[in-house]
Amino acid sequence: MTVANEVDTVTLQAPPTDAAAPPGPFLSLAPHPWSKQMVPASPPPPGCPHAGPARRTVVQAAAFAAVGIASAAVPGLAPTAWAAEPAPRAGAGAGTAARVPAAKAAADALPLRADRDSQGDILAGFRKDQACLLFLHFGDAAKARQWLGRLLPSISTTEEVARFNQDFSRARKRSGGIDPVSMSGLWTGLSLTHPGLRLFGGKEPFPAAPPGSNAEAFTQGAAARAQLLGDTGTSAPQSWLFGAEQSATAVHAVLTLAADNPDTLAEAVADHRDGAGAAGATVVFRQDGATLPDALRGHEHFGFADCISQPGVRGFDEPDPATGTTVLGKPGTRLIPAGEFLVGRERVGQRSNGLPAWATGGAFQVVRRLAQDVPGWWTQVALRLAELQKAGSAPADAGKEWLGARLMGRWPNGMPVAVCPAAQQPREPGVDPDAKLDYGADPNGWGMPLFAHIRKGNPRGGLVLTPGRPPLAQAELDGRRLMRRGIPYGPVYNPELGDGHGPEASRGLLFICHQADLVGQFELVVRKWLNEPDFPAGRNPRTGCDPVLGPDSALAFETPSATGSRADTLYFSRFVRTEGSVYAFSPSLSVLRALAGGHLDDSIEFHTGSVLHPGEVLDAGKVRLTLDSTGDLALLDSQGRRLWHSDTGGSGHDAVLTSDGELVVRTAEGRPAWSSDTAGHAGARLLLRPSGELVILDGDRVLWRASAS
What we know:
The protein has a domain of 104 residues: Agglutinin, subunit A (Orthogonal Prism). It contains twelve helices and 29 strands. Helix 3 packs antiparallel against helix 12 and helix 8 crosses helix 9. It is globular.
C-alpha cells in the first residue's frame, strides 16, 4: 500500500542483510569492516451503518489552495553491486566500437544515471527481495562520525544501482521473465533525522524554520505532526514501535540494507550491528521486510499488486520520442522534473527549495510501519458489498474482490478497475497496465470511484476543482508525486498454513518514500487528499477518505442513474494502523563525507535554474533574500532593514541563477534589469550565509558578494 498512488511495495522482507560489499569483478572499493563478496542469488523462500442512496447535487468546489495546488507551483497557474555482463560475441569488435558513440549519447541524454553522489534508492531504487532497516541512536558524536567515515565506502550510489538494475532487467528479459540467479547484489543506504543531523554536524541544521516550511516539519518530526497526518487513536505515537522516543533515545540514523539473498542480508546486518555497537550506538528498532512468496510475489498483504505506477524522472528515465513527456514503453507514465525528488535539480515551475546547502543532492525520506488487519478489512468489504447488492448498486453475483478492487482502484493482479470494470483481465506481458489510465472522462467516479486509493493519491487527469468544469491537466499535479520504495513485512495471512499465519501475527507494509518537498508532497497527499473526506471538493454527499489508508469515513459510492449520479453511502472503519513513523533525510555522499568530519553547511542555497518571484523569501535566520513587490532584489537583516539591494524597483519581474553562474533580475519581457556579471562560470553556486552575506562561488573562489559591508 502506498500513500501516494497505489498500495505500495517494492519487494523486500525477511532476515536483515547489511552493508555494501565490494562490487565483485567490475567494481573495487576501499576495504572496510563490512565488505564482502557478492554471492549468487538463491530462490526466494516459500514461503458500519448504511445510510442508503442520496441524490448528487452540484456544490461550489474549494479553491486551488484547498487541495494543495498553489498557482506558483504549477505551469500556467498564478557501490555495492555485481552484475554478470555477457562477453562480446566473436567478430563483434566493429559493432561494439560503433556502439560507443551511441552509448555516450545515451549517457549524455540521461545524466542522472551516471550520478555517483546521490544515494541509489532515491531515483534508481534498491528493488531487492530482502531488506532490513536499523534505527540507530548514538551516544557520542565523535564516535558516530568515525562510524560514518567507515560506512561511507559501502553507501550505494545512483550510478551503481541504476547500472545493476538495467543489467538485471536485460538478463531477466533474455531468460523469458525468470530472475537471473547468477546476479546478486547488496545495497546500503543511510538517512539522518533532525537530531541525527544536529549530532553529526555539531549545530542546528536549519538557520531558520518558518511556519509551514519543510524546515519546521522536519525539525518537529513525524510524532509531533501525527495529529496533522491522521495518526490518532490506535495510530497515535504513544503506541509506536519507533519514532516517538524521548530525546535521550531518539533515532539519529536509519540504515537501510537490501539484498537478493536472505543469508547475505543476515550476515550484513550482523556485521553492521557490531560496527554500530562498537561506535556506542544503540539499535532503537529493527525492521525486517521481504517480498511476499509464491502467488503473492509483488503484492501487499491485502492481496493487490503494488508499486505499479511510479513517476518517471527527466534525465533518468528514457523519454518516448513520440511524446517527449512520457517514459519509453510506459505510455501512462509522465516524466517529472528530477528536482521533485532530488534537491537541487529543476523543479516544476522552477520553484526554489529554500533549503540549506547540505540538502543539495539528497532527499527527504519518510518511513512508516503500517500494520494491516487482513481478515478485518476483507470482512468489512464483504459486509459493504452486501449492502450495495441489497440497494441494487452492485451485481448480485459479484464477489468481495469486486468491491475490494474498487476500494483499491485495481484488481488483485494490478489491472485498473477503470480499464476492466466488470471483472479482472489478465495483464499482457510487457504492457503497462496504466498506459491508458486517465480519469478525465470520469468526473463522477463511475468507472474509477473518486475514493479509490490510487485515485485519491494520484488524481491523474481527473481532478475536478469545480463540479461541471473541466478537470486539471495531469501536468499540474506533477509536483505532488512521491517516489515510493515500500516493502511488506510479516508472514502472509493464511491460517491453513498453521501457527504464525493467522490474525495474531504481525504483518503490514513498511512504507518508504523519497521527495524533495516533505510538506508539499508527502504531507499534502496524506493530509489534503487521502485523509480529507471532501476531496475532490464540493460534492454532495462528500467523497470520503481513502478506504485503504485513511481514517474512519463514510464513502459515497456513485453509480449512474436516470437523473444523473446516484450515491450509496457506505461506512468504512480503519484497518490499517500506524505503528511507527520517522522523518529522515538521505544526504549526498559528499555531504556525508563532510558530516564525517563534523562539518555542516547551513547556508541557504539558491539553485541553478530556480526562479525567485515577487514576495518570495529565502530565510537564513539573521539574514533574508527577497524580491519585493516592486521587483527589487534585497538582502535584509532580521529586522527587515536593507543590507543590499539591486535597485530594480519598478522594472524587476523575477530573479534567476543561470546555468552560466550569473544572478539576474529580469524584466517582464525576460531582459536583464540587473546582473551579478559572473557569467562564464558553469556550476557556480549562490549561497545565502547566516553570517549575513550573499555569495556566488566557483568552487571555493568568491565571484561576487553582497553584505552589510
